[in-house]
Amino acid sequence: MQEDNVIRTKEDADRIFYGKRYFAFLDILGFRELVRNNNHSVLVELYKRIVNYQVEFYSKYSAEKAELEKKRLREYYEPTGLRLVNISDSIMLWTDNSKLSSLYEIVSAVKMIMSISMSAGIPLRGAIVKGDVEIFENEQSLSIVGRGLVDAYEMESIQQWSGCVIDESIFIWLNSINRVVANKKTNISLEKADWLVKKYSVPFKKGKEEFTRDLFAVNWAEGSNQTEEDIRNSFSMHNKRAKENETVTESIERKIENTLEFWRQNKS
Question: What dotted CATH number matches 12-266?
């Protein structure tokens, strides 16, 4: 028997059961058009505002929202070293373990980032997975590699809306831990936390095939003070739709309608 698989302490159990990360990959919809339809100086200033807006908000979430989240999540709140990096058109977040408390935290952060980005005219699309992701970081560079990154990107890229799904294997795995190891008869509490996640028929398109899958999605619409017009305008802001052709228009309008349908069903 390999020593790595022997459980002698709680730390051994945590490493074996919860050693992988949760990883969220968020993509800016319309980024190519954002670049093409604005001159470089405008783009640089716009991107600085976008990045600063997200980073400042995330910092505020991490600090000022901690006590509020602790009260709302109660025993499920546990700071987990959540990290965020923004590279080009992608925003990536990750935890340092795969405990249920870590899932609560990354979902909460993604919900807030998606909502604030929609308000800023930068609709996002993403996926949250659990998997092998290695972070190599020093003072000069940061690299992210692993199957988890690829899985999140592939799941993100085929969705037909502004939204973020959570890989169903996460719930299957956590529920199995809940029932077999913790000897509980109910599913994990997150499934009932409607203010954070909702089971929804998520729209996908792979090649020419359009289909839906019933998955848990981050409920960014809950608590939103945006109007239907605000959400429609978010897809057009910053000249993103200035030079689109008929095919692109049809594709974007489909994404907008799918996004609005989720918002209509889940706003409060």
Answer: 3.30.70.1230
